Amino acid sequence: MAWIYLLVAAVFEVVFALGTNATEGFTVLGPSLLTIAAAAGGIFFLSLALRTLDVGVGYTVWTGIGSVGTVVLGTLIFEEAMTPGKALAFVLIIGGVLGLKLADRLSPTTPTV
Fold it and tell me: Which residues are listed as membrane-spanning (predicted)?
């Protein structure tokens, strides 16, 4: 369930990042409220995921998915440039996220304090 919570948190993270662009410095009410709600939702679901996952794994995966999702949607929505360097960085981030998930699955479960 922790990985599902983490994916939901990452979706909120993408909405937060994209919404921030539309707030115009938090001077536009609708996007500002959406951005604040998305930030709260992301942190809430991240906290649920971190009840099971290591904070290093959870936070890194959350920010990785959020970063990739934000750049992909920023490219589609805001017509930001997609360069070969960005594409390579995405592949590396996705590889790191998958590696962390695999490493988490293979590591022995340790009790949290």
Answer: 33-50, 57-78, 84-103
